[in-house]
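Handoff note, outgoing to incoming analyst
You'll be picking up this chain. Sequence as last confirmed:
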Amino acid sequence: MNIHPGSYGFRNSLGAFALALGLGLGVAPAAYAQQIAVGNFGVSANGMPYAVALDKGFFKDEGINVTGIITSAGGGTSLRNMIAGGVPYGEVNPGVVVAAILQGADLKIISDNVLTVAEFVWAVKKDSPIKSLADIKGKKIGFTNPRSTSQALAQMVAQKAGLQPNEVELVRTGGFGEGYAALGTGMIDIAPIPEPLWAQHKDNLRAIAVASDILPPLANVVGVTTANMAAEKGDFIRAVIRARRKAVAFMVEKPDEAGDIVAKHYNLTPEVARAAVRNLVSSRTQGVEYWGSGQFNLDGLNRMIDVQKSLGALSGNIDLSKMIDMQFLPEDIRKPK
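Most recent structure output, in case you need it:
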């Protein structure tokens, strides 16, 4: 499968951050200690519970003050932002975290936050001749950044179509909004359109594949911290996880109110945000919910690692038990599902 551009630069930059962590240079100034890093916050649905936690005061209820959310366009960018900012807690694609750990970064996966990829559809323009997965041979499929979830899933979509790696072209767009724009200009033929972008633009597009219909439960994003922050900010990290769990429960109980909150943080109309939240709180992929409490679903996590291996982003025997630290989870959800 042709990847444009390659991930060589990403490997080098990740290695540099791993070296910095190993030398103890990733320690943050105290002023940054109460920020968190969430990939695609304000764009993709994974980060919506943090908007609810901010607005409803759940962080403050847990005794912490989250002063801001560092966001990014996903992939390695999310992890680099977290490490560079020295924040105690980040939400990142699991493949990126595992790759960094294998390169020497002293990171731990501390929560399993989004358990499926149900927010994704792959869409074409309404007048596209592509009608289904049977028509994607030789076409250009967008993804955000190297080793992102969207890149891994693009390969799975091609496999579902029965294609060999070189029979489609994967094109980096840099973000989901940028991918939507690239679809409009003809730079790509097929774009991954996650919620809430799908609720916002679905009238102008046509879905040719829906993740919850064609893919099994796959770990989407996980909570992560560094060894330094685990030692220095353990209580803060635990409070973030508890507050996010409260937010997820609130979204299930009051999806429309949660949607109105999300609308403010994601610059959406209330109608679009409500539709996205309702869609995802009711979503089940083979019985697995979209937003989790933080409790680990090891089957989904292992599946995503296998996907990353098939992509060439990971290789060899990977012992997740050495990468996971459950001490920050509330006691009632420390046992994996």
